Amino acid sequence: MAPTATLTDSPTIPGTSVTLGPVRTFTDENTGRAIRQLTDLPNGAHLSYFRYFKQLPGNRILARGKHEQGNMIILHPESGEVQLIPHALGTLKLRESDGFMWIVRSAAGETKKRADRRHDRSIWTARIEMDGSIAEPALLAEVPDDLPGDITDITIDGRYLLTIDTVQDITKHPIPTTRDIASIRGFYDRPRSGAIWAYDLTTGERKKIHETDGMCPLHLDTSPADATLIRFCHDMYDSCGQRTWTIRADGSDLRKIRVQEYGELVTHEFWWADPNYIGYTYQDRRGEATLHDCPWAEYSPRPTQLGIADLHGREVFLSDPLESYHSHLYMSPDGGYVSGEGTHSHSFVYAAPFSMNQSRLDMRRMATIHTDYIPFRGQGVDCNFSADGRWLIYADKIGGSKHHQLFAVEVDF
């Protein structure tokens, strides 16, 4: 008989710890702006990758920060309050509208090392309230061990669990960290294949909804508004094929998002503030002589632009060329501001007012990034806005630190 999702009693969870006030405030040496350091955790803190939802009730931010009780923290950028979430391994999905989240961990609730995550097959739920308190996690469902792939995401109504099953040997062709052309070509040419599976938690039905050969599905991210819509990309050299796609949880309605011609580079896709749109970075490298000899977007001779497409795949906005390449572009919750993360020789976090009616983006330097830049990998900045758009929050390593901490700079324009 197919398993169904059922709520069960959870183990007792102790209260959270709270630290009040920013660790310190200092003046940025290049921008002159006041910078607030929000965390000083022994193992560091970061916002996680830009595609995850992070906004909580009460203008709070959900972030990652390893501490003695778990791996998740809550930040309040205005007050500087840092709240430790007990026994949370990490969120599978946060529903920003009401603070409801889904968590993947073992049946007993204990955390594990990343190497053991594939064996975590229990889905838990919890809710973060307006005051920052967290309700005790409850076990929602046990996922069958024979469901292929790694648990990756869940639809915003909690019905469909998504996994990605990949076949590859990343040890023979590791992710490049230098400007060695042989290493990046070996990475892109490595043998690989993959599939996306959807598992219905209410019926126990499973379905392979997308399959690839010669590449892997990547960056899977379910819609924040449409309970059956999934966005993902193909793991490939982004200017030589179609990067971004959407599909339904039943495998129907596969669509190309921002249909690409050969040489058009589309990458770092994300849900826009209005989830009827998808944002991305764009470079037009059609006919460009160094397209294959210089596959790094950050060292491309062509400028970067911010693009936005609708869910039919049609481009509805393309900015003027930006002043430099940005590892990621992102937006404030209301879409009124855009942020950027600089790269080699442009180590700053940026922000600009945004309007769909204005193609020029006045990207202003908000804070210096001190973390060393790694080609193809960036600096781990992952900047994001607070819910009210007043603060730009980012990760950096300062003063020779081995770990990222979280900082905030006021968006005052």
* Percentage of residues in strands: 35-45%
Gyration radius, to the nearest Å?
21 Å
CA-based shape: globular
Biggest sheet features:
6 strands, antiparallel
Q: Structural class, please?
A: mainly beta
Q: What is the helix fraction of residues, given as a range?
A: under 10%
| Average pLDDT number | 88
Distance between the amino and carboxyl termini: 59 Å
Instruction: Give me the count of strands.
Output: 31
Number of DSSP helices? 1
Low-confidence stretches: 1-15, 111-118
Note down, in words, how this protein is organized.
The protein contains 1 helix and 31 strands. The protein is mainly β and about 425 residues long. A hairpin with a 5-residue loop joins strand 25 (about 330) and strand 26 (about 335-340).
Keywords:
single chain; 413 residues; mainly beta; six-stranded antiparallel beta sheet; five-stranded antiparallel beta sheet; 31 strands; globular; disordered N terminus
How do the helices and strands line up, and which of them pair or pack?
Elements: E1 18-19, E2 24-27, E3 34-37, E4 45-46, E5 55-56, E6 60-67, E7 70-76, E8 81-85, E9 91-95, E10 100-105, E11 122-127, E12 138-142, E13 150-154, E14 160-168, H1 181-188, E15 192-200, E16 206-213, E17 217-222, E18 229-234, E19 244-248, E20 255-257, E21 264-271, E22 277-284, E23 305-310, E24 315-318, E25 329-331, E26 337-341, E27 348-353, E28 364-368, E29 384-385, E30 391-396, E31 405-410
Antiparallel strand pairs: 1-8, 2-3, 3-31, 4-6, 5-6, 6-7, 7-8, 9-10, 10-11, 11-12, 13-14, 14-15, 15-16, 17-18, 18-19, 19-20, 21-22, 22-23, 23-24, 25-26, 26-27, 27-28, 29-30, 30-31
